[in-house]
Amino acid sequence: YANGTGSSSDPIAIGFIASRDGLVVSDTRGLLGDAPARESYYVTIKGVGYNAEPIAGQDTEKPLYFLKLTGLSASTTLDAVTYGRGDPKVAQTVVILGGGDGTGVFKATLSKMRYTKADSTTTPSVLSGIETLPRIADQNLGAPVVDLDGQLVGIVIPDSTDANRSIIYPISRILESINAIPSQGASTAVVGGGGG
Fold it and tell me: How far is CA 94 from CA 36, 45, 46, 137, 151, in A?
């Protein structure tokens, strides 16, 4: 993604297409940095540029940031990710499709699951992040993480507890965040497993 609405801007973040109607996901820190959200962004997908606007009412303290491509013609066909059927497991090998320009490929093994404690004893803890070996480099922020079948299992985000580490935000939390977005006209909801 680049700032503004021109193709001459340098890329500022990477992400993925979450739905065929133009919902795009990136990590908040990679896209915004320390700056406030912009009114529009320029997104390049397979060499084609699109204007995109932030989804209204987003919490910039959350790890994911959502954009909606605008001005799509009826003939525009977008390839959304295919979602994994559940969260990955420790010792599973994943592929991170990242790098500063979105063209790098990085293989890692999942080493530790992190859970957020529930508010009550009857509510289970929630998977909130996954560590890898080797560690994920910062230039991969916003990168989609896929299993060896090519299905999305996470996105790279900064670690909120260690400024020198990036972690994987799991597919269960991504889908939860997507499904919490208020309707933006076209159907953006994704219910999980299978196609995107």
Answer: 32, 23, 23, 15, 10
